[in-house]
Amino acid sequence: MLVLDIVSSILLMTGIFFGFSGAVGLFRFPDFFTRVHAASITDSIAVILIIAGLLLQTSFDLNTAKLMFILMFLMITSPTASHALAKSARHGGLLTLGESKQQQKQQKEQMQQQEAGQ
Amino acid sequence: MHLGLWVVVLSLFWLLLSGYMQPMLLSFGAISVLLVVLVIKRMANVDQELKQVDFRLSIFRYLPWLLKEIMSSSFHVTKLIWSSPKDLSPTLAKISLKNIPKEKRVLYANSITLTPGTLSLDINKHEITVHALEAASVDELNEGAMERKIAGLWPKKGEEK
Amino acid sequence: MTAVLAAVCIAILVIMALALTRAMKAPTVYDRILGVNMFGTKTVLFIAVVGYLMGRPEFLDIAIVYALINFIGMVAVLRYFEYTAPID
Predict the structure, then answer these.
(1) Domain boundaries in chain A?
(2) Is there a single domain that holds both residue B111 and residue B79?
(3) Alpha-carbon dihedral C57, C62, C66, C67, rounded to 10 degrees
(4) Where are the alpha helices (DSSP H) in B84-158?
(5) Nearest chain C Cα distance for residue A77, angstroms
(6) Is C6 on the interface with A (CB under 8 A)?
(7) Into how many domains does chain B fold?
(8) Do A18 and B88 touch (CB under 8 A)?
C-alpha cells in the first residue's frame, strides 16, 4: 500500500511540475501560436500524469472507470479544442512570428523607398 | 448495425454514470437510451457522414507508442520553456496525407496536436498545415514515423493481408 | 497522502490563477480564450483531486459534467469568434 502511495505522489508531483511549466510558458513565449504549444503541455502530459496518480488511489471499482473516462474524454477534446482555436485564429488573420517579422520588414522597405523617392 | 452499437455504447455510459442496479433506475436508463437512439435514427437521415466506427484492437498498440512520443516531446518543450523562449524558430509546414486512410485522418491530426511542439492548423483532402515550435519537429513528421505507425496498424481497405 | 493531495490542490489553484491572469491580461482575444480553456481543463483535474482529498469520489461525476460543458462552451465561443474577432 505504501509503495502505491509513493508512486502516486511522484506521478502527481511530476504532473504538477509539467502543468506549472505550461502555465509559465503561457507568459514566456513570444506569440500566440507558440503559446498554444505551451498550453498543450498542460493539456496532454500533465493531465495524463495527474489522472494516473489518482488512478492508483482507487480500489479498482466504478471510480476507476470514471477516471479512465475523464482521461479519454480530455485526450479527445483537448487537441480538438486547440486545433479549433488555432484554426479560428488563423482565419481571423493572426500571423505567426515568422510571417509578422516578414511583414514588418516589407513595411520598413516600403517606407525607405518612399523616403528615397522624396 | 450501427444503431445496435449505439445502444451498447449508451447503455455502458449510463451504467458508468449511475452505478446503481435497482430495477427502477435501470428502466429509466433503458428509456433514455431508447429516446437517444430514436433521435440518432432521425438524425442519420439528415446528415450523410461516414458512419463506420472502427473497433479494431490496433488502437491498444498505437496508444503506448503515442504516450511515449508525448513524454519525450513534453520534456523537450519544457526544457525550451525554462531555458530560452526568445530564440525559437517557429515554422509552418504542409504534411502530405496521401498514405493515411480516410477514416484515420482525424486520429493523425489529433495525434499531431496532442504531442507538444507540433500543432495542426488546417486540414484538407491532401495535406495538413502544421505549426511547429522548432524546424526539427517538422523534419521528424516528414520522416514519417507517426505516418508509418498509423498506416501500418490500419492498412487501407483492399490492401489488408 | 492527505498532505500530498492538499499540496497538489494548492498547486493546481496556482496554475489556475496563472491561466486566469493570462485570460484577463493578454494581447489578443485568442490568448484570452487559450487561458480560459486551460483554466477549464485544470478545473476538471482540481475537482477530481478535491474529491479524493475529502474522501468523496462522487465528485468525479461533477468533473465529468464540467469536462463536457467546458468543451461545448469552447467550441461555441470559437464558432462565434472565428470570423468576427478584432485583432489588437
Answers:
(1) 2-113
(2) yes
(3) 40
(4) 105-114, 135-143, 145-153
(5) 7
(6) no
(7) 2
(8) no
